[in-house]
Design a protein that fits this description.
Length: 262
């Protein structure tokens, strides 16, 4: 296929407005009416981009205000799930579902020509009939999926039918390995240098430096300043007063001498 014949698909933006209800979380739905597609079925507040100059978040905020009258701040928009959908008649589209839990105003029907009802419904008791494509997005959202494929076959009903559910969840990347306690190992918990009492060239050297042997100083630093260890990303240094030269142990003097019968 040449660049002039590149395939394109429409892009939808769908609002998952969630609030706390008497029996649990509730989602805002509207019922389609008139001569539009899937009239009489419940669907999320949704729409399309006006053109290449409009991004998906801006389109969602605009469509939400135009259809329900509520004002959403773009900073309160959260990406929920993406659904690649194909209708029973063969047309395909890509739907991007966004979660919103904060807004201004009270939702109401703003376009009576294409919508005749709007209300809040518990996720466990969604109304019927509902557009199968919308139900696929909500099911994927509740399952915590990032993406789903919902390709209907010719003859499938437009409304959701639990016996003909074409929703396929796309697996997310494998989770990062955790420790036995269920937490991701943090680099800040690793020792850098020699922890107290762990390693030492000898008892005499440990005694000369206060009971433990500090790691060697970096080139160019004073011999009296040694980095002891780092814990929780907090570096601790100790300034050690070295004993006189005549009192310092000679390196290796504690090692057994050859030929001494040891």
């Amino acid at each position: 296929m040449t660049d002039d014949q590149r395939y394109t698909e429409p892009l939808d933006v769908d609002l998952i407005a969630v609030r706390d209800g008497a029996t649990g979380p509730e989602v805002l739905l509207s019922r389609r009416a008139g001569e539009m597609y899937a009239a009489g079925c419940w669907h999320l507040v949704s729409g399309h981009l006006d053109g290449p100059w409009e991004d998906v978040v801006t389109a969602l905020v605009r469509e939400t205000r135009e259809e329900s009258g509520i004002v959403v701040d773009p900073v309160d928009v959260r990406a929920a799930v993406t659904v690649h959908h194909r209708s029973p008649v063969g047309g395909a589209r890509l739907g991007m579902f966004f979660e919103v839990k904060r807004w201004q105003g009270i939702p109401e029907v703003m376009k009576h020509r294409v919508c005749d009802a709007m209300g809040w419904f518990p996720f466990d008791n969604l109304p019927e009939p509902m557009v199968a494509y919308c139900r696929a997005g909500l099911d994927a959202y509740r399952a915590g999926a990032r993406m789903a494929v919902h390709f209907q076959e010719p003859g499938d009903p437009i409304a959701y039918d639990p016996d003909i559910d074409r929703t396929v969840l796309v697996p997310a990347p494998a989770a990062e390995k955790t420790s036995r306690r269920g937490r991701v190992p943090s680099p800040s918990r690793r020792w850098v240098g020699s922890p107290p009492g762990r390693t030492s060239p000898g008892r005499a050297r440990k005694a000369a430096y206060g009971g433990y042997a500090p790691p060697r100083a970096a080139p160019g630093t004073s011999r009296s300043t040694r980095t002891i260890y780092r814990f929780h990303q907090r570096e601790v240094t100790a300034c050690v007063r070295l004993p006189p030269a005549w009192a310092r142990p000679r390196p290796g003097w504690w090692q057994p001498m050859r030929g001494c019968g040891r």
